[in-house]
Amino acid sequence: MQIEDLARLQFALTAGAHFLFVALTLGLATLVAVVQTRATFGGNPVHVRMTRFWGQLYIINYAMGIVTGLVMEFQLGLSWSGLTEYAGDVFGSALAIEALVAFFVESTFLGLWIFGWNKLNRWAHLALIWVVTLTAYVSAFWIMIANGFLQNPVGHVLEGGQRLRLTDFGAMVANPAAQVAFWHIMGGAMVAGGFFMAGVSAYHLRKRTPEQDLFRKSLRIGMGVALPAVFVTATFGGISFETMQPTKIAAWVNDAERLAAAQAEMVARFGPGDYLPPAGLVYASGLTMLLLFAVLMFVSGLSCLLMFFRPVVRGFRLWHWLLTLMIPVPFVAMLAGWMFREVGRQPWAVYGLLKTSDAMSPVTEGQMIFSLTAFVTVFAVLVAVNYWLLARQARRGPDAVMLGDRPIEVPVPAPTF
């Protein structure tokens, strides 16, 4: 493989692995906030236990996601210094705002929520989780603003033929390539969170573990969120085709005439060169995304119908097996969607302005192989640890949750003289 291919593979693997954490964090944060709202207004102890159980799973995934995010940041400087030197002054502003929101505001309020159990007023504690959820949305929004600029660069000027400078911050924020993608991502995150909650709940219902009422309610909430989220995701995914690059559309259609026309148009604009993305990979990833979302739509629709029958929710083990097996499907669909979005803009790092080959750092093949090996190893360990922690905590159930548990008061013996 060429150095450029190794660098692209490294970015794809690390960004994709980090995105798995982000999607579940966004989905679970929303579901925990909804459950705690019901617990706060209704005072039902089952909803309180639901909040603690799902909240602990959310915290595990959030913590591991922060670690993967920090590791992923290193590769921008290590492998893509050309991109940051050329366009960092533009999309770097969005990343800076995201970092402030995620690492200062969101983390601060999450810490208050974690350690505020049994100490803060219930309404103040509820407000904290909603602040955490909304700041998570804001964080994702600014990430998509940065990515949208790479897909459709707007609001900039070229200085000295070597560096972009931001001139219209509002145009970058209003970029349709970012706005539509943000809602598409948010819908997908709700699908991932909903199927995760329903799948874990189905596992406990199938095993006849204690807290059956808790998991019946959790299953209904998970599927009740997942079904409309599938439609939202599909709707904004369809709208995104209106802002899609012509070369990506040609690769998706996989038609020889359209590919030739798109290539000729790019040659006329930018001079001789190969401007087509790998059509087979774009088509395969797009088709995988659509097929899996069709499966998600069918299963979530069927599940919402079955939820009306209490005996089915309680004892239909085949359905419980299906929902448990469906847990990874939204993540695979979202990874296929990301591959379609990112691979489809090749060979551009900043579409129409900077090629991927020019965005790379001046590294040798040996350095790139070492970097790829190190990043893949670190991320493989982090993903495995996160899976193990989530699976262990999910199997142990609400009785093993430490979040919000009242500390045991040990009597202090009276002093002796």
Topology:
Elements: H1 3-42, H2 45-79, H3 81-115, H4 122-151, E1 156-159, E2 163-166, H5 169-173, H6 176-207, H7 212-239, H8 246-253, H9 256-270, H10 279-306, H11 310-315, H12 317-325, H13 329-343, E3 348-350, E4 354-355, H14 356-359, H15 365-396
Antiparallel strand pairs: 1-2, 3-4
Explain what the structure shows:
This protein is 77% helix and 3% strand. It is built from 15 helices and four strands. The strands form two sheets. It has a two-stranded antiparallel ribbon. It has a two-stranded antiparallel ribbon with strand order 3-4. α2 packs across α7 (212-239). The longest helix has 40 residues, at 3-42.
Task: Considering the chains and any ligands shown, give keywords for the structure.
single chain; 417 residues; mainly alpha; 2 domains; two-stranded antiparallel sheet; globular
Instruction: Tell me, briefly, the overall form.
Output: globular
Are there runs of 5+ residues with pLDDT below 50, and where?
Answer: 407-412
If strands are numbered along the chain, what order do they take across the biggest sheet? 1-2
Strand content: under 5%
Number of helices: 15
Distance between the termini: 79 Å
Instruction: Write down how many β-strands occur, each being a DSSP E stretch of 2 or more residues.
Output: 4
**In the residues, how many domains can be counted?**
2
Helix content: over 70%
Mean pLDDT: 88
Radius of gyration: 23 Å
SSE succession? HHHHEEHHHHHHHHHEEHH
Describe the main β-sheet briefly. Answer: 2 strands, antiparallel
Structural class: mainly alpha
